Amino acid sequence: MAKKILLTSFQTWLPHHVSNSSDDLLAQIQAEEFLVASLTFLRQLPVDIALASQKAIATIQTLQPDTVICCGMAESRDRLTIESNASWSQEQIYTSVNLEQLIAKLSHTKISHEAGKFVCEGLYYQVLRYLKQFRPQSHCLFVHVPVLTDMNLPEILADFRLILEEMGA
């Protein structure tokens, strides 16, 4: 039986954003046939920690995925970055995924230890906290996606596909 992966993205949040690169990436993946895992898309979450977290956790409760991969836009970054942890107040929660092993096969991805102190980190924290408490067998990643261009899109897509394959194996 194929593993279930839930993928999330966000809406835009600044007036100059034509689109959100996290959602653009998921649109590309959603258009492909993916056989390694069963993918469910929860695209264009509101840029609001409480609302985005509620929608994501409700979907997790219904779907009961093996892995949740939350995606967000990082305009200032030039490659995919996988966040090692999320903080809220004084608490810090780390992903259960071995990130060093995961990125060993990736050419355009690095590990980040700073999820951004915005809605991305808030969602990541809430999902990690929920999974830790109610679905400890499930994994969660947060992937920040740079602005996609004709130059970086092939590398970003290739790395993201490998992440999906690894998490679906």
From TrEMBL:
Keyword Hydrolase: yes
GO function term, MF aspect, one: cysteine-type peptidase activity
Keywords (A to Z) from UniProt: Hydrolase, Protease, Thiol protease
InterPro entries assigned: Peptidase_C15-like, Peptidase_C15-like_sf
GO biological process: proteolysis
Entry keyword Protease: yes
Record-linked PANTHER family: PROTEASE FAMILY C15 PYROGLUTAMYL-PEPTIDASE I-RELATED, PYROGLUTAMYL-PEPTIDASE I
Family classification: Belongs to the peptidase C15 family.
This protein's name: Peptidase C15
Source species: Hydrococcus rivularis NIES-593
